[in-house]
Amino acid sequence: MTSELTSKINNKEATVGIVGLGYVGLPLGLGFVAKGHRVLGLDIDSAKVEAINGGRSYIEHIDAGPIGAGVDAGLLSATADFARAGDCDALVLCVPTPLSDHHEPDLSYVLDTLDALLPHLRKGQVLSLESTTYPGTTEEELRPKIESRGLVVGEDFFLVYSPEREDPGNAQFSSVNIPKVMGGSTPACTEVGRALYEAVVEEVVPVSSTQVAEFAKLLENIYRSVNIGLVNELKVAADRMGIDIWEVIEAAKTKPFGFNAFYPGPGLGGHCIPIDPFYLTWKAREYGVHTRFIELAGEVNESMPAYVVRQVGAALNTRKKPVNGSRVLLMGLAYKENVDDMRESPTFHLMDGLATSGAEVDYYDPHIPEITPTREHAEWTGRRSVEWSPEVVASYDCVVIATHHRAFDLASLVEHADLIVDTRNALAKDGVAAREGQLYKA
Known about the structure:
This protein is of the alpha/beta class.
């Protein structure tokens, strides 16, 4: 069975099912299509299914051209009918793994998706989970469900874990040229998984187990979370000392060894850094381990929106204005620059904090003209970005730069805004000089 499936993959006779057509699933699917493989996308969102079958893109940084070309070539299609999973030789799960309200893993998307697929699984398939999760998920949660169908993992069905490493908007790295860590439930599973990913990715990095692959993804993101937490804490200390933390970082990074620059901000965003470390924290408690370092970094990073709100209040005080009743414009809803991805964006927490303090809050983001439904911030659904104009900018008591988009006209901002709070050092990076007393960093 192993050789039959790997042969089908190598000969481009296999159909690859991508389950979840978001920021991870869609580019991966297009990567397979570009290599000449048949791809069937499966998603419960009928709007995404209709867009793909119509040759359209719904993610800003993904061009519609490859989608239309794949559809026209008969290599790409999408469906909301999960019974079609039986038509696939490989199934790749790319669904969210958020946290619960108590910072515990929420595997409902993974498990509900697997339950929907289970009746249609068959011998001779490989299933790969790409969603970030705690070590043991693949073996403890997925494998028993699959084997309850009478399938024998490693003999007539193959199970692997290979964490996504997608970085939306990154022009240098994509799903096909980022090395792919992958671990199988058995050696045979690893062999099949390697064949699957070598069909699309330049370098596959096999590891000894699914647990190692799961832990590796968490380590990557914990490394970033802890270092961002450190520099965020130092930012607050530097501010109290009257020292510019951005100048400090620029000086420190001139050292050619032993230092990697991380940068502060208004909080963490995206689906990885604010969430993934707590998956390990939760799992470690099962083994009697208290991951204090991870939790401390999380506390620091989660405190940053409140710090920015306080800085907005301090800035408004210089104009003898309270936050209550002031009009505040937030520039940038996306969690990172130059993309339309607002998942877990700290801007939502800034909006919440300022609104709770009585401010009239709006946002401007040319990448996100309207806020679509989110899991945690339903109250902002339907709110639209303001239209940029000198008159609009001048009408606000304070403008907060929350994301540093290239599309922002910072020269116009400085010309027309009365008060600016810059959380990203955007003005300095772009060489735009503020007027005396106009700029506050946070």
